[in-house]
Amino acid sequence: MLTRIDLSAEDRDAVAALCAEAAGEHPAADDPAFLREAPLFAHRLPRAVRAALAGLHADDGPSALVIGGLDVPDEAIGPTPASWREGRPVPPAVHRLENALVLYSSLLGDVFGWATQQDGRLVHDVVPTRGHEDEQLGSGSTAPLMWHTEEAFHPCRADYVVLMCLRNPDGVATTVGGLDPSVLTEEERRCAFEPRFRIRPDKSHLEAYNAENADRHREGFDRTERMNEEPDAVPVLFGAPHDPFLQIDPAYMDTAPGDEPARRTLDRIGEAIEGGLTDVPLRPGDVVFIDNFRLVHGRQPFKARYDGTDRWLKRVNVTRDLRKSSAMRLPDAVRVVA
User: Fold this and answer.
1) Strand spans (E) along 241-311
2) What pLDDT sits at residue 215?
3) Alpha-carbon distance 193 to 186, whole Å?
4) What residues contact residue 13 under an 8 Å CB cut-off, 6+ apart?
5) Which of 47, 97, 213, 312 makes an SS bond possible with 119, Cβ 3.0 to 4.6 Å?
6) Quick one: which residues bind 2-oxoglutarate (predicted)?
């Protein structure tokens, strides 16, 4: 399910030089000109990186990959932001690391963002935030973040979720897992493929958590609110019956009242996933790539200090087909889904 490679010293220096070159030509990792050129830069990455990501992209390859070995200078990256809103401006060292994140991801597809999440930014900060300790959000801490498919509620969700670790002094584990469909009975499998489940948006996409940009992205928030109030019924499994894809988010998910077979099937799938979770404690310089159609991910609980030394991840969403979201994207931001 998960493989890992670590950069050699030579490859680490090559990646660093490439990212510094890109930083000298483009002001930010989400600069439109850089995003257009990112695939060209990415093809100059070391062969070991390109080969590992080509394996992840293949349908018969692993579903998760960790590439370790990037140099993260702790003092140069500055303190962990108090929230995603405080993640700008970006220090030069962080800019170069964000470039690596985008370049790696460009070998899998196109980086994109959400108008309803972190003000439409393409590169997210995942940091503990005061007041969110017990929330089912990436900004939580004390409560475990329950495993889930990223943006399971949305038809244009990412094919891959990519997390880069900048700081993790407590060794907090990201959890990763999948479903072995052979554990399901024929009846459970048939039920799981039927549209009998409702998934609502997680709170990070709601207007209350994005008050500063709500008016600017009104169309996206209105659409998300409709999804929250009247979610469409969807299957949990889809695709090939013998090798299905997965969409699930138990914290924001239910079945129709009285549909006991669907409830039992959802519980059975949840038990199977829970029993096969793997802890992945990311170290600074680690980048984990998660196939969002095959795996779920979450996070173990921890106690935040809020002193600038807390766990700090960067996150991007990657799609293999940017065109599928064309009807929902902002007219002036071709990589932001509203």
Assistant:
1) 243-246, 253-255, 278-281, 287-291, 295-299
2) 66
3) 11
4) none
5) 213
6) 174, 311, 315
Closest CA to 328 of 113, 30, 36: 113
Which residues 6+ apart lie within 8 Å of 225 measured at CB? 206, 207
Q: Is the peptide bond before 89 cis (omega within 30 degrees of 0)?
A: yes
Q: Annotation-wise, does 311 bind a ligand?
A: yes
Give the per-residue pLDDT at 119.
87
* Complete domains list, the chain, with CATH: 2-177+274-325 (3.60.130.10)
Is residue 186 part of an annotated ligand binding site?
no
Contact 189, 235 (CB under 8 A): no
Q: What is the pTM of this model?
A: 0.96
Q: Is the pLDDT of residue 147 over 90?
A: yes
Phi-psi region of 320 (alpha: psi -120 to 50; beta: other; left: phi over 0): alpha
To the question of whether residue 242 is assigned a binding role by annotation, the answer is: no
Judged by DSSP in three states, 178 sits in strand
Lay out the sheet containing 253-255: strands in order across: 233-234, 197-199, 253-255
For residue 211, the model assigns a pLDDT of 58
Average pLDDT, the chain: 94
- Is 315 known to sit in a ligand binding site? yes
Residue 109 has pLDDT above 80, yes or no: yes
